[in-house]
Amino acid sequence: MNYKRKKQNNLNRSLKIPVEKKMEGKMKQKTSYFTLLLLLILLVYCFQLNAGITGKITGTVKDENTGEPLPGVNVMIEGTVMGAATNLKGIYVILNIPPEEYSITTSMMGYQSKTVTKVKVRADLTTRINFNIAQTLIPVEGITIIDIRPIIEKDLTESRHIVDADESKHMPVEAIQDVVAQQAGVIEGHIRGGREGEVIYMMDGVAIVDPLTNRFDSSIPQFGVQETAVYTGGFSAEYGNAQSGVVNIVMKEGGKSQSGSISYQTNDFRGMQVFHDYLDYGHQESANRLDFGLGGPEPLTTYLLPLMNLSFPGKGVRYYLAGEMTNTLGRFPHDDETKRTYQGKISYIPATSIKMGFGMLKHSNDYHYYDVRWKYILDHLPDIERDSDNYSFFFNQMFGSKTYYEFKISRYKTKRLLNVFEDGTFDINGDGIIDDRDKDGIDDFADENRDESVEINGEESGIYWPDLSQYPFTRAQDVNKFYKDGYYRIAWQDDDRETWTARLDLTSQVTEGHQIKTGFEGKYYELFYYRADMASGGNVYMDKYKNYPHSTACYIQDKMEFEGIIVNAGFRFDYFNAKTSYPKDKLHPVPDSLITSGGVIKDPVETDPKFQLSPRIGVSHPITERDVLHFTYGHYFQTPPLYILYRNGNYDFSGAFPMVGNPNIDQEKTVSYETGVKHAITNYAVIDVTGFYKDISGLTDTESIYYTAANYYTIYRNTDYGNVRGIEVTFWKRPEGLFSYWSGSIHYTYSVAKGKSSTTRQNYDYVWAGYVVPTREYPLDWDQPHTLNVNVDFRVPRDEALFGIRFLNNFGFNIITNYGSGLPWTPPSRTRIQLINAERRPWTLSTNVKINKDFTIFNKFSLSFMTYIYNLFNRSNLQDIANAEWYKTFGDPEGQYKDETVWSEGRLIRLGVELNWMLGK
User: Fold this and answer.
1) Quick one: which of 720, 718, 761, 516 has its CA closest to 612?
2) Residue 229 pLDDT > 50
3) Is 196 helix (H, G, I), strand (E, B) or coil?
4) How far apart are CA 229 and CA 176, in angstroms?
5) Using CB atoms within 10 A of its CB, is residue 390 exposed (0-12), middle (13-18) or buried (19+)?
6) What is the rounded distance in angstroms from the CA atom of residue 737 to the CA atom of residue 682?
7) How far is Cα of residue 628 from the mean position of the Cα atoms in its chain?
8) What kind and span of H or E run contains 888?
């Protein structure tokens, strides 16, 4: 980060010692006999909740001349130990295959072998490869053919958009979230009208979300991603704690050869200012980004030990490592950001039927932000540090060719530190005046050891944060209302959250038409949150808690695949226990002696465990070879973000307008339907039309509780609701047939998203402002009726020349264009009744481009030169309104302070170079 702390401050950080009082006593869980019996029954049948990260290959092997099925034929995936033999009907099934491209080979005495190449496997889907092989009396060379994947995935029963590594590599995107944003039904992180925290991100079957916010707060290196699947409609029973969507990310595993990539992008040419200004278009972004990825057989066991005449047991160890490092000065002053992300995966096959491995993800992000009213003293705004990491171990074993299980244990940890670096706000020299002479480069107010005692100028003061309420904290403004002195707030926030997950998964192809998946998962959370916040006016808000909730879940699911119909049917059970307490009587939450200050719960009772049953079904009905009808229906539950449960858990009423959490809050619920039809226009182009409807209930909002005639507090309740309906039209073409150089997709969405409120605290804000609390549905903040995403890819293969010009081989470009009709905004009202989202902002349009030219070197290396252009046409899209009254009166969204952050970023150009290599066979 670009701010400095003296050695004393660094020493304090290195000596962080959380001082916590252990919770006294243990609460007894009150569960009815019926609930306990139901849970035991479910546990008998269920073993694990696990996101699908592998696929399946199946098909038949027949005699080429007679058409008779051939039993006993070995079907193997080349370069692996995976394979199966055909049964008496000539059918084979290979399970537990990581998503990738493979070659499949048959072998049988008396028959010619046949190999099918370029077979793509995708997570949770079935790839069908049928063989017709010929008899031979003498050994002959086998036949090799290239697989042409059917344009329609007939076993896809829900809306799922799959982007593999080759596709995302060519797109002008910077992160996984950008890939997600291009799919139908996704609007500014919201999937089909749901709130942002209703989407769960999973990496190799592990949820990587902050449990306090239910949001993805990490990053994943693009070079490490094999496949990204975005579920926007219904999703099967194996996915839980998500209401709107699932983003399932499968990471790469090392191949049989050493391969890798390294890429560098920049528009930081400040030594050549004219060139720099052209690339940044005056924004001074000065971005630098380095990506790398490398993998293959692990060198020690593969190369070094054999040189020493030693061998490592098993079928070998493979690895893949990826990283992403970026820094930018940002669009505005004090808008800088530095990110570092590293990911790794090691897999080992000790025996033919066993696979085990270890995965790791580590991410850090340090950043500031710009606020127009603080533009003269931007260093008085907060410094923010975010860190997250994930470690996981998995063990996978096959029983025969049709059954396997996987055990996985993981730990995901995320941390956040927010600090306003005050300097010169404390009278260090004791002259009775606070001025620049009191600055010494040490943070004036902090709590590095988390003991609730303020550290003033780097030394323990013994002062409890709320005791600072009489401290003379002010903000000074100039005549134009810009801040010229003081600080954003005297604030300190330090928290970390750990999620431990253990699970066991079982998958079995019990018959030709039935694949059963069942599983059980247990989660244990360690949550620590600590914030001290002094606002102007003498109010000090402090919240500190440490909680240990836990949850369990299980599911059972049957994938039925028959000639004319494919059905995914199942149900799941979710259990959650907040493991804390709340007041028995909400009207008398604290002792009478503490009626104005609070801080102690009166008559605490322990929280009730929450559990839900969720039925789900998806159907795919192939009408013809080119047409498929699909339908899904499901119930989806989600525990609200855990800060909703634990905020201000001791009912501290010392600050103004107190708000408390509700640990006994229920799960939020969505019932979702969708139906659609897919039609293959040609063998390489398809159109899908899908209609959907969502009924949402039990969303979190707030309620005011008057505990005296004059005093009230605000608590979270399940009082909100909404509904979403719409239609999606998707066209997709792959690079084959007519116009084979061209491929791409068009996603159009028409939707209407309405609800009683767009945030969990709308009621709280309206009561505070004196407005009438709404009781009916309004357009939600992200209600965008018309959305159009277009992705066009043009690519000339290595062995072809465009217009006869050889230099134009290995050349390509990708264009992404996004259009959105105007989002709603609330105009000012002269009454206490607000005109919630009654008007619309202008429509938006943006176009991003990536151009690349590759050069092949010695058939082992390729060098690529790239140009990224963001906002190609330099269009200014209105993203926000600084002051509604000002905008309504003058038509100026920047408001009286001329806040340029309301507009989208202008044109940016980055140049890049990438080296790729593949060594060995």
Assistant:
1) 718
2) yes
3) helix
4) 11
5) buried
6) 9
7) 30
8) helix 884-890
Residue pointed to by tokens 């505070």: 768
Give the position of tokens 């690079």.
735
How far apart, in whole angstroms, are the C-alpha atoms of residue 734 and residue 684? Answer: 6
| Token code pair at residue 774 | 């709404």
**Dist CA 457 CA 802 (whole Å):** 68
Sign of the C-alpha dihedral, residues 85, 87, 90, 93?
negative
Secondary structure string (H, E, C) spanning 46-112:
CCCCCCCCCEEEEEEEEECCCCCECCCCEEEECCCCCEEECCCCCEEEEEEECCEEEEEEEEECCEE
pLDDT digits (tens, 9 = 90+) for 5-29: 333 333 333 333 333 333 333 333 4
H or E segment to which residue 11 belongs: helix 7-14
Q: Which residues are paired to 111 by β-bridges?
A: 108, 135
Place of tokens 């959490």: 661
- Give pLDDT tens digits for 496-516: 999 999 999 899 999 989 999
Between the CA of residue 49 and those of 211, 241, 404, 407, what are the distances in Å? 17, 11, 15, 11
Q: Would the CA dihedral through 94, 100, 101, 103 be positive or negative? A: negative
Residue pLDDT, tens place only, 231-240: 998 888 999 9
Q: Read off the amino acid at residue 756.
A: K
CA dihedral 831, 832, 837, 842 (to 10 degrees): 40
Which residue in 745, 737, 729 sits closest to 171, CA to CA? 745
What is the spatial distance between Cα 472 and Cα 462, in angstroms, rounded to a whole number?
18
Which of the two residues, 259 and 136, has the higher pLDDT score?
259
- At position 241, the amino acid (one-letter code) is N
The tokens describing 568, both together, are 């995914």
State which amino acid sits at residue 3: Y
∠ CA 383-389-394, nearest 5°, is 170
**Extended strands (E) in 298-336:** 317-328
The helix/strand/coil state of 379 is helix
| CA atoms within 13 A of residue 918's CA, in its CB half-sphere | 8
Contact 231/158 with Cβ under 8 angstroms? yes
**Residue written as token pair 């499949």:** 104
User: What is the C-alpha separation between 666 and 650, in angstroms, rounded?
Assistant: 20
Largest Cα–Cα separation, the chain: 105
Identity of the amino acid at 768: W
Rounded Cα gap, residues 819 and 752, in angstroms: 16
Predicted pLDDT of residue 6: 37
Which amino acid, one-letter code, is at 898? K
Q: Enumerate long-range contacts of 350-357, CB under 8 Å, 24 or more apart.
A: 350/313, 350/314, 350/315, 351/314, 351/315, 352/81, 352/315, 353/397, 353/398, 353/399, 354/395, 354/396, 354/397, 354/398, 355/395, 355/396, 355/397, 356/393, 356/394, 356/395, 356/396, 357/393, 357/394
> Could you tell me the CA-to-CA distances from 461 to 452, 453, 488, 534, 543 in Å, in that order?
11, 7, 23, 17, 19
pLDDT of residue 820: 97
787, 819, 840, 871 from 875: Cα distances, Å: 17, 12, 19, 7
Over range 468-476, report the average pLDDT: 72
Q: What share of the chain is helix, strand, coil (3-state, %, to 5)?
A: 10, 50, 40
Among 281, 270, 283, 189, smallest CA distance to 900 is for: 283
Q: Is 733 helix (H, G, I), strand (E, B) or coil?
A: strand
Whole-angstrom CA distances from 380 to 226, 371, 426, 448, 768 are: 43, 11, 15, 19, 27
User: Of 800, 809, 814, 793, whose CA–CA distance to 854 is shortest?
Assistant: 809
∠74-80-81 over CA atoms, to 5°? 55
